Amino acid sequence: MLSLSKATTIIDAALEKARAENFAPLAVAVLDAGGHLVAYKREDGAGIVRFDIAYGKAWGSLGMGFGSRELTERAEKNPTFIGVLSTVSGGRMVPSPGGVLIQDDSCTVVGAVGISGDIGGNDEICAVAGIEAAGFAAATGVPK
Amino acid sequence: MLSLSKATTIIDAALEKARAENFAPLAVAVLDAGGHLVAYKREDGAGIVRFDIAYGKAWGSLGMGFGSRELTERAEKNPTFIGVLSTVSGGRMVPSPGGVLIQDDSCTVVGAVGISGDIGGNDEICAVAGIEAAGFAAATGVPK
Amino acid sequence: MLSLSKATTIIDAALEKARAENFAPLAVAVLDAGGHLVAYKREDGAGIVRFDIAYGKAWGSLGMGFGSRELTERAEKNPTFIGVLSTVSGGRMVPSPGGVLIQDDSCTVVGAVGISGDIGGNDEICAVAGIEAAGFAAATGVPK
Amino acid sequence: MLSLSKATTIIDAALEKARAENFAPLAVAVLDAGGHLVAYKREDGAGIVRFDIAYGKAWGSLGMGFGSRELTERAEKNPTFIGVLSTVSGGRMVPSPGGVLIQDDSCTVVGAVGISGDIGGNDEICAVAGIEAAGFAAATGVPK
């Protein structure tokens, strides 16, 4: 289970990383294993669609069982299928890095982080930093 | 403008109040004046529809221009119309106390808080506590 | 056909009436006979759901073939059916006065006005004022 | 804040430009910073999907934080991702020029204009003309 306490640690550490790196303003969503929002913060200046993108990166990672970097790579090979998956999921699958699975000590997926605001690679750096600060393992692609 | 810093203060003070009163686990959403999510926390044990209810209480307050306690009273007088409003807004209007407008010193509405988890009256107590802790005025009904 | 020029006259005259009567801030939508938006103005201070309500009053009037005052009366007699109609139309039917059909000299319905912001009766007064200022006939219920 | 008065000036100046240039009939939408419609006009002869395109150009500009010309360029490089963004946003992101951010003297984004009817480049010319006539700065891409 992913507690609110852990989710808050993830978000705050992710945003601390973003400010240290001087990234663009971010939106950070933490979802439980059922795809439901546990906690969310949107930095001042982030656009109004950032929630939907952050949520979609996290939800899609849970939906497929791997981080959104893997989905990004599959999208390059098979764009049509990813377009269909996007529609199937009601827009909750975003093929861009920044959706990262959260695994506990027993390799169980307990949730996912989704971040949007900077380029996908930078969003992902912050997601990993947040997950690791909370004592979890981060899976940006297919989990071990 | 409603900063992330202020929104975080609102949520944390609302949850502090909830724990002091021993209320049921809460979901707390803070929206900006345009109805977009700025910050959110869901306490451990709150059910999976709590986000949508909390969000709808806040969004509906912004949509109509008064706190959801006023909408609750109107719903008792005219249930059909409130049912229609729910559909009009895509489910984003919830006629139960706990949606409270946030006003700054010049009486401008800068956002809204929506809380769900306990009975509406208790949700509202926490919303007001959070808003006031952040130095804003809370409007549970028609604002002054 | 309802020209942009006529639609603009309707909106501006409706808002002139609202200011003369000191009504609450209004949202005014003018739709053509196909239910498509021709022109719209939202006064400063009107809430964020007012577009959807104004549009729904006008669309529903065109949908049923009578002004929304008639829909309001039917809603009192048969609330369940109105709830279903609301869902059928995707929330585009609002049983409250303020949706008024626009008829030309030959009694053809060329469009509809929908207004939201004050109580339904006041919204309707402004809609009628706007329609008549543009040289059309206004039908608040079943047209002649 | 973007007042109705300023929004009306933007639309009327945009349409004046369109008539001076003899462009195709246009639909012009002005949104506030939260993505809500403030004013709209559709010239006679513009098709029935023009509202949705104009609205989507403006909404998507606010959603991403840059004018739709930038989104157009990104779409050429990564069409799959833009298709997904379209779904994520419920169709409210249109990668074609004509969505332009409105900035005030302090570089704050106070809203966006979206225009559809002619080719994107011509739509954009009218959006910029309207914004500047109202005393604001126009950002067709990433704002300064």
UniProtKB/TrEMBL annotation, chains A, B, C, D:
It comes from Ciceribacter lividus. Pfam families: HbpS-like. Gene3D superfamilies: Haem-degrading domain. This is Uncharacterized protein GlcG (DUF336 family). InterPro entries: GlcG_carb_metab_protein, PduO/GlcC-like, PduO/GlcC-like_sf. SUPFAM superfamilies: GlcG-like (SSF143744).
